[in-house]
Amino acid sequence: MEKLTRAELPGLFASAAKMMAEKAEELGKMDALLGDGDLGLTMKKGFEALPALLQNLPEADVGLAIAKAGMTLSSTIPSTMGFLMGSGLMSGGKAVSGAGEIGAVEYAAFWRGFAEGIIKRGKCAPGDCTVLDAIDAAAVGAEEYLHKSPDASLAGAAAAARDGALAGVESTRQMIPKFGKAAVHQATSAGVIDQGAYAGYCLAAAFCRYVES
User: Fold this and answer.
1) What is the pTM of this model?
2) Which of 24, 43, 83, 112 has a CA between 20 and 30 Å from the CA of residue 76?
3) Domain-wise residue ranges, the chain
4) What b/e sequence results for 108-125 when a residue is b if at least 16 CB atoms lie within 10 Å of its CB, and e otherwise?
5) 27-70 residue pLDDT tens
6) What CATH class does 6-212 carry?
């Protein structure tokens, strides 16, 4: 796939919904260790609402359509992760609004905007052991790929973002949580990946799977 057009968005987010459904039980078990145990169900519920929305949404601009999907995600799952993911999508969508379609350059800009949206809404920073550690690493991965590859492809950028997000997840094993129940139970979280970061990786992996298909 060379570009993501407006017509591709329902399929892109259907891939995300499928991934969140596949990972719902795993995310739930991870969240039960350090949180409320409902992360898997909330991610599944939130993302499964987006493909139909994007199919019927009259918004023609690819970036603004993504931003509206973010608004829907926030309202569908009014939880901390819902707000962070929703804010990320809104900011990421705005970062590519007016582009018409998403290629490698726009894909990197989307993830950078996503990270900035989480930073603004969550008042967090990379290294705080949150979903941001995966999303920011996805943005860095895509940006570094663009820098090294003059003939960068969308598939290459998507793979770099996915791999960056996975590295970001792994890095949370060494971090001290600053937010939520994980911050209260720091001894329990030692050596454990952050469940929010893993959800962020799942999104990057789902988008990559769709682009590569």
Assistant:
1) 0.94
2) 112
3) 6-212
4) bbbbbbbbbbbbebbebe
5) 999 999 877 899 999 999 999 999 999 999 999 999 999 999 99
6) mainly alpha
